[in-house]
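Board notes (copied after class):
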Amino acid sequence: MTQPSQVKDLTLLGHSENRLPQTPEEAQLEVFDNRNADRNYWIELDYPEFSSLCPVTGQPDTAHLTIRYIPGEKCLETKSLKYYLASFRNFPSFNEDIVNRILDDLSGAVTPRRMVVKGRFSARGGIRLTATASFPDAGLEDVE
């Protein structure tokens, strides 16, 4: 069975790769053609094991990330997304910045019709933080 040319372009899927990128800049987001680009439909990706570092204390932060998007011409390849998200593990950044960075990086990679990234971070000092960012930035009335 021959593979479609778009699958041949993917470098992580179907390959044994043990080394995770050390930073988001080092990570490579891969995409493939949306074969249903004539239709609006949601893709929802759940990542309950996200972790990063507090830039002030160096302590780990954990979160449950949800990424929802209506693809345009391209879709995110999920193994490269997993590696990208894992690259934040030792990355110091504030929770709000992380959610906005992920939205910017992912929407830049696939140019979706719509995308929402929500990070529900574990409680620190008794306060649980949830940050939600959307593309295109439609204002507060449209954020889920």
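Comment from the instructor: The longest strand covers residues 43-53. The radius of gyration is 16 Å.
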